[in-house]
Amino acid sequence: QVHLVESGGGVVQAGGSLKLSCTAPERSFSTYHMGWFRQAPGKEPEFVASISQNSLSTNYADSVKGRFTISRDNAKTTLNLQMNSLKPEDTAVYFCAATRVALAITLRLYNYWGRGTQVTVSS
Fold first, then answer.
1. d(Cα 29, Cα 46) in Å, to the nearest integer?
2. How confident is the model over 18-61, as pLDDT tens digits?
3. Which residues 6+ apart lie within 8 Å of 44 measured at CB?
């Protein structure tokens, strides 16, 4: 089991950048594949990015490819999401999640979730 806590959200102008982080106190963090999801007001949650246990493989939604970068530091039990060239449509609550399934993009395959951090991109 892992307890995930997101941070780094905020308000930024379109074209700006933010870096989200997700930390866990458990060293078992390194045994999970990790992902980021987001949920905009009135919409279903959607996959953003995922990364394998050893960081060798990543996967991105088409809507963020080339703008967002997922990374992790297992020694610090931290997952990151660097978000550049932000657009108003990136406005959402961002969640990190842990799974045993490599590069999973489906919500139901993730076992543990953080509470989320709000990202607002103004035009």
1. 22
2. 999 999 999 999 999 999 999 999 999 999 999 999 999 999 99
3. none
